Amino acid sequence: MTPTRDPVFEVGPRLAMGALLQGAVWADFATVRDAVGAGDSVISKHARSLEDAGYLEVSKGAVGRRPRTWFRLTDAGRTALESHLAWLTSLSDALRAPTGAPPPASSDR
Fold first, then answer.
1. Over the stretch 38-49, which tens digit does the pLDDT of each residue have?
2. Residue 41 to residue 6: CA distance in whole angstroms
3. pTM of the full predicted structure?
4. Where do the structural domains in the chain lie, given as residue ranges?
């Protein structure tokens, strides 16, 4: 797999949601909201963006009489997230690698 930047995951809540859901079969809305530390409307908005990209599956139902929403990453979402994380890692590695040129002297800045 070639690491690829994915603009869908460049928004903090979406990356956080993807990272959380990567290790879950299904996660309920409240769990995602609390783990990401965002409000209901923020989670709803970003869930819709992930769903529109084909990265998130949403299931609605009820527990007793209370409505519930559950999320899980699709196979495409898992692949895209994995590739984006690999891209971020390669970017981080590149930033830490020496370039071969010394930094400019303080009087040259």
1. 999 999 999 999
2. 23
3. 0.83
4. 7-94
